[in-house]
Amino acid sequence: MRPLLPLLAAALLGGCASVAIDDNYGELQRFARDEAGSETRWLRSAAEREAMAAEVERLLAAPLGADDAVRIALGYSPAFQTLLAEAAAASADATGSARVANPVFSFERLVRSHGGERELDIGRALGFSLLDILLLPARLERAAFRQQQTRLQASSALLDTVTEVRKAWVDAVAAAQVARYQEAVAGATGTGAELARRMQAAGNFSRLQRAREQALAADAAANLIRARQNATAAREALVQRLGLTPMQAQALTLPERLPALPETPTDEATVARTLVEDRLDLRIARADLDWTAKDLGLTRVTSVVNGLHVAGVRNSETGEPSQRGFEIELPLPLFDFGDAARAGGEARYLAAFNRTTQIARAASSQLRISYDAYRSAYDLARHYRDEIVPLRRSIAEEAVLQYNGMLIGVFELLADARAQVASATQAIEAEREFWRAEATLKASLLGQPVAPLALQAGAAPEPAGGGH
Fold this sequence. Notes:
Elements: H1 5-12, H2 17-36, H3 46-60, H4 66-75, H5 78-97, E1 104-114, E2 117-129, H6 130-134, H7 136-201, H8 207-242, H9 246-251, H10 268-272, H11 280-302, E3 309-317, E4 320-329, H12 339-404, H13 410-446
Antiparallel strand pairs: 1-2, 2-3, 3-4
């Protein structure tokens, strides 16, 4: 047993679960700072939860920006706290998988009565799995791969949280902005409908002309109802992402409008310089492949010999000297030769290998798709900002001048005003799609494969009014 003492010590000191959990959380914090530009908070006590709740109240005292929304989600949301706890549980499981099973102590007491005499037999044995000790280096290495996989999966989940929170914030701000513009449209069409009613009563308008104006007002009222419902739904989606309480949700205020478009979009060369090998999805696939390979190696050994137990034995019997010795327990592969386990392990390895190959080959294509969606959304939003909206504004201003000069009537003026508001609404929707595309592109650069907007069915809220 003396040569096995170092291995036993290694088994006992093979890893502390709390240390591994803290190390993994520290790595996640570093990823959040470097890649997401935010901080994570793991609330493990009532005092920490109260402190974070006070910080959330402070952040909600002013209109909530996108960065502050991410900060709340990564430090307060119960969904993200669940993610952190599950990552800690996975880390503890990985640490436990590398440890040798505890030794087993067995005690046997037998009594024999014969001819008025009473004999007592006592057996004691202390055993452990010798196979576990022999495979300890491989188990430790496999546990390290599992810890790596846990860190990568937690980073991927964090990235997904950040992306979804930013999209939810963009949707909420844009939906509220569209609802305000739809109120202006409804007001203009309502004025036109009332004026048409009065003109018909005075005999200056036909029934058909009045009906047309009333239909416009009715459509605008329906669009306003949809816009308000979309604004409420988008706001509540953000509230759910942030994990706010009902009182905190009431205190939530959002900016009046989306951020201005950047003067220049992200350069395609920046995307081209992205190292595909550093993407999270590929690193997760490689960690899974390594883990599967280690399992395959263990399977080839344990499929034939899946147990080897050694025990020290001491037996005591009344009137007899004590017996000392050892016993070895070894399963015999008479019925199960391990071929099914080996075949299954090899198939799982091939699946992991091909999955990794597919992810690597698709990574560059995903980046190109995401960038194309981002650049198209930027060009469209800028076209609305620089061309369509100024042109509609100019038309409305000229219409006012012509109305003042009695060259056009009030209904032509109202029609131009409605067209101007409609173009502004479309510009808001184009800006919303751009900011959503930017969030998707950032996630794709880091290795979170997200389908681009053009490929997502119902990814964004339906524009108020059902489109134009």
